[in-house]
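ARCHIVE RECORD
Type: protein–small molecule complex
Small molecule: zinc ion
Source of inputs: curated submission
Record status: active
Notes field left blank by submitter.
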Amino acid sequence: MRNDLKCKDCFDLLMDYLEDNLDSETQKKLDQHFAACPPCLNFLESYRDCSKMAQQLRDQQVEIPKELENRLKTFLREQM
Ligand SMILES: [Zn+2]
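STRUCTURE (tokenized, with ligand):
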């Protein structure tokens, strides 16, 4: 049985990998793949940055300006 993962498998598992949802066996296989496959490692790094950024945005709890919200509501009412 072949032990190594394909690049596609890595992408499929990436989310779980970053959220620590994988069993240690699979996690180790991914680590090995990333160590041997620079493109995947790059992807992992940029993906990690992205999700960090998204997290920060969520933490800041960006609010919709009141005016925009009102305009949106008016718009929705008009559509109904
Ligand atoms: Zn790869």
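CURATOR ANNOTATION: The chain has four helices and no strands.
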